[in-house]
Specification:
By secondary structure, this protein is mainly α. The chain is 31% helix and 0% strand. It has one domain. The protein is elongated, with a radius of gyration of 13 Å. The relative contact order is 0.17.
């Protein structure tokens, strides 16, 4: 799970590397990010 306000972090990239090395299919699901200042 990613925080839209933080963006992709170094930790997120490390997890992505581990998942990529597993050779399994990976799905990234995106839900809207609520931000009243941007709406």
């Amino acid at each position: 799970m990613l925080d839209a306000t933080d963006g992709v972090t170094a930790y997120d990239r490390e997890i992505a590397k581990i998942l990529h090395k597993s050779g399994k299919d990976i799905f990234l699901l995106i839900n809207k990010a609520d931000n009243t200042r941007r709406e």
